[in-house]
Amino acid sequence: MYNIGMATRFREIDEPDVPVPVNQLSIGSRIPCDMFIKDGLGLKVFFNKDTLFTNASRDILRDKGISEVYIYQRDEPHLDFYISKTRLPKQSQDRETPASFKQYAFTKEQHYQIDPSMLIEGTTINFSLSVLDDFNFSSLVEASDKYPVVVDSGILNVAGDVVIKKTDLPRYHEYISYLRKSYKFIDNNESKTRALAIRETSKIVLQSFLEEPRSGEKIKEVEVLVNDIIGCILADQDSIYTLLSMKGYDYYTYTHSVNVSAMAVSLGITTGLTRVDIEKLGMGAMLHDIGKSQISHEILDKQGRLSDVEYTIIKNHVIEGEKIMRDHKSFPEESIGAVIHHHEKLTGKGYPFGLAGKDISFFGRITAISDCYDALTTRRPYKAPFTPFYALMMISKDTGDYDPDLLKIFIRMLGKIK
Ligand SMILES: [Fe+2]
Ligand SMILES: [Fe+2]
User: Fold this and answer.
1) Do 148 and 174 contact (CB within 8 A), yes or no?
2) What is the pTM of this model?
């Protein structure tokens, strides 16, 4: 049986029924184990292990009238340790600091994250695999044209992100194209496999465009993939869950862009846009962060607090993105809205212009919601991802920032996500 996804979670036999008063959790601390809340008749995971407990988390729980969360009995020792640790004075807490962020940013830049569920047991690969976990890169499989390797199940069960060298990207692209054409489909679920292959190909094409954002040829390739994504969601609205299913250890602009585009397309379809407009929206959302191609990886992958100068450089990706996309004469004016307005907030507190309300384009408002949701649910080396349920609550809490009508549709659309 082939497992889809980075990590397989076995079905729990026991229930998370040990209550923990919320006032035992300290602001600014990492949650020591998965924590659940009662939602309707069932229990829903509210915090993943390692999530940061913030003022916002406490407020959400208070607003919902929740004073207790629940954990598994086996996690009680972790909770006890957490409580004893968080009660120590701040200065006595050890803070892990990675040895060399610079080296990490450099090595990360040389690699590309793949979806290990696309590595089919029994097929042959001619590209090497490494694992990125907790800031460390380690070799997993050495393979080349001369020394190809047959994929076995051991490759598929590793903790961390499976990455390849960027120089091996054409070989990986070839491998995915072969899978798309062949019958070696996963679980015989054609629509799911189709979505997985489209997502993986979109990431490759986008990565390639990020390296040459002024290429007229490459933008056409992006257009083809955006159309594939639209076709996929139109054929089966639930394929959005497959398109978004890969979660990794780290953030990659190409993965983020494909996720944001898929969500924006799905939202566009639900709001009743025409096919032509959905294509324009999908392209705008796919390329909303293209300005990041102009920022050094040392800043993009910096861990911890950014200086004012670095933050200004990051914020400038919106303006840079607009410049790049305006040079593509075929890129529609409406799509520019997604690029230039995706960091604007309805309250006028966003950037670059501080626009408010309906002065923010429709595509910009759709992309802003999708962008925020993906950022919240993405893992970073220093931040555990929020669960979809919690992320949706965080976004809806900021009711002033996002279009409330779009938000309602978005929550309904992603409400089923696990
Ligand atoms: Fe952005
Ligand atoms: Fe973004």
Assistant:
1) no
2) 0.78
